[in-house]
Design a protein that fits this description.
Blueprint lengths: L1 E5 L3 H13 L3 E5 L10 H4 L9 E4 L9 E4 L1 H12 L7 H31 L5 H21 L13 H10 L13 H11 L2 H14 L6 H8 L3 H6 L1
Parallel strand pairs: 1-2
Antiparallel strand pairs: 1-3, 3-4
Helix pairs in contact: 1-3, 1-6, 1-8, 4-5, 4-6, 5-7
């Protein structure tokens, strides 16, 4: 049984996508990031960066004590290795999947996240910041579009954790001020993943939590006003 500490954000959706694809037994423990659940001591004990998602695997492959994992990319790698799925075992195939997984973790996620912040949540409109991250998101979409020319998935012929990592960050393309129809290969890839039964199930799992009230001003302070000192006081 996997215990998943989750909220329906792009990083949260990555993990439910994998769990649904692999058919693993799991229980969702909601972490309402706008209410400050990520600062609870019991959560920080295994997710020290006060971010979700995180998991506790009560039945690890070695049969030992429960294993905790934080950071969405590390969780995807852990689950892929646990199940032997969505990560090739050959040297070159594994290398390619991990390249594109790390590309998402270091590029698409952070840049699209800043796009969301300055375009939607920032208390003041800063044109330079908005343009900076809209343009960088656009560049990254172009990287994916070129990569997907002539291949169905980011790492090649097979669906992998690299695709699961990237897809949720493309879902809010309108919020990111992008036009998916400008990227024919990316659009084809996006539509193929959106229609997968496991993707539909994964996103349905988030619907009860997505129905929560919109982020309040107090929630924005919790999400975006963190310092080392404020986290220590939480």
């Amino acid at each position: 049984m996997i215990q998943l500490y989750y909220w329906p954000t792009p990083n949260g959706h990555k993990i439910t996508m994998f769990l649904e694809e692999a058919g693993l037994d799991y229980t969702i423990h909601p972490v309402n990031i706008s209410a400050g659940d990520q600062f609870r001591a019991e959560f920080l004990a295994f997710s020290p960066n006060n971010r979700m998602p995180a998991i506790i695997d009560r039945a690890p492959a070695d049969g030992g004590e429960a294993v905790t994992v934080f950071e969405s990319g590390a969780i995807l790698l852990y689950l892929a290795e646990k199940t032997g799925r969505f990560l090739p075992t050959d040297l070159r195939g594994r290398k390619t999947v991990t390249e594109w997984l790390f590309w998402q973790m270091g590029g698409l996620g952070p840049m699209a996240g800043q796009n969301h912040h300055f375009g939607v949540y920032a208390p003041e409109t800063i044109p330079y910041a908005i343009n900076r991250y809209v343009n960088e998101t656009n560049r990254l979409y172009g990287v994916m579009d070129r990569r997907l020319a002539g291949r169905p998935f980011l790492a090649g012929d097979d669906y992998s954790i690299a695709d699961m990592a990237a897809y949720p960050w493309v879902v809010p393309w309108k919020r990111q001020q992008q036009n998916l129809d400008d990227f024919a290969n990316l659009r084809r890839w996006f539509d193929s993943i959106r229609e997968r039964p496991a993707t539909l199930r994964a996103y349905a799992k988030g619907e009860p939590f997505s129905a929560q009230p919109a982020v309040t001003d107090e929630g924005k302070k919790i999400l975006f006003g963190q310092t080392a000192a404020s986290v220590a006081r939480a």
